[in-house]
Amino acid sequence: MKPYDEIDEILYRDLEQLDHKMMECLEHENQEEYEFSPEFNEKMWLLEDQIQSESLRVHEDDGHPLRLLSSKRLCVVALVSVMTLLFTLTAVAAGDKIIRYSQYHDSLQGADVYHYRMENNGEEPNVVRVYPEYIPDSYKETACRYDDGFHRLDITYNDEAGRTIRYSMWQMTDGVSVGMVFDAEYDSGETLEINGLDWFCTYKEDGYRMARVLKDDLYFLLNCPDTLPQEDFLKLLEGIVPPERPDVPAVERRAEE
Amino acid sequence: MITLIYERYSRLMMHQAYKILNDHYLAEDAVHNAFLRIACNIDTVKRLNEHQIKRYAVIAAQNSAIDLYRKHHKQILYEIPYDDPELKAQVPAGAGSMENSVLEAVKQLPGMYRDVFLLKYSVGLTNEEIGSLLQLTVSGVKQRLTRGKVILKKSLKEGYDEAIR
Questions:
Q1: What does the pLDDT look like over A158-179, one tens digit per residue?
Q2: What is the mean pLDDT of chain A?
Q3: Higher pLDDT, A42 or A65
Q4: Nearest to A15 among B2, B28, B103 (CB)
Q5: What is the DSSP code string of A24-74?
Q6: Best mutation site among A8, A19, A87 for testing chain B: the one with the most B CBs within 10 Å?
Q7: Residue A196 CB neighbours (<10 A)
Q8: Using an 8 Å Cβ cutoff, are A120 and A174 in contact?
Q9: Confidence bin at A79 (pLDDT 50/70/90)
């Protein structure tokens, strides 16, 4: 019987070859071309976007170089920036032109969950894109993407220290349900009326300043670092001005589930 | 890097997760969780070669799927029965009898040990890096290596005894 150190030597020397053979067997078995769901692709897209903009990185307290977030923290970041979008076809009630809206608190995840469903009788939406009119001088746009399929605009701004402001705008689309999950473990929250919009703002120390609002068929989400002064945060909200549109769906709010 | 892994290996990862979970939606969740794990360990992944990244991604998907399976089935068992084509792999030609026996024994190890062996000896990760991927403590990784070697030793001894008979 050989001693363990010789087994170690054999493993270091030869296991990689066996691993190649094992992988070949695995790949040989995997012949099918699986098509991932839009929900999965959306989540992957968000993840890539977050990595590209270095939003997965945070400063250490002592000012040393950046470090990656732990898995748990990463999940919270994902929650904050809309972790889940569920796109399912829904039956559309003829004649109505409304957005159905409901919400509940998921205590297990520590999250607020919102569901929207547009019933627009098959009509194409009057597509609009709303860009923020104000961004603090220290921040520069680093990514801007518009998804034609879901009428969604995402813009990322970074400052030199790597801090990120993330702005998103969705336009509800007929026959599509949207589910959003937000971190509910914030330190404080308030509703601010700005430009006729009731922004729901949440604040978390060493985390974020976040604001969200639904205006007709448009949904806005702003996610800023907590280091951003409140004055700048309010200016950002003032700079988000949706256009007046006379022919838009009504919003019907259901009782909380 | 994440985009590259997604483009090249996401379907392979999906296939592994689906075999364990037998549900496309859960399998997609598992693959997404695997990508979160990879994202958290991206500095480790960046120094791996193509084969090593593939192995890393596959093990990440399998382990995420197993975690989901246990969560949904309220099971504490690690081993979940599913068809494992990797067992069909032939030990590389030219290996001596001792090497052959060791590699055959590694192939037959339960998944929880084999994954750690592959990550350590084939991919070349440290115990800390293995723990970070599999969400184990360093002592948990060491324990699996030790127990895996005990199983290896037992298996080799049985083979040796049979050969003598």
A1: 888 888 898 989 887 766 666 6
A2: 73
A3: A42
A4: B103
A5: HHHHHH----PPPPHHHHHHHHHHHHHHHTTTTEE--TT--S-EEPPHHHH
A6: A19
A7: 9
A8: yes
A9: very low
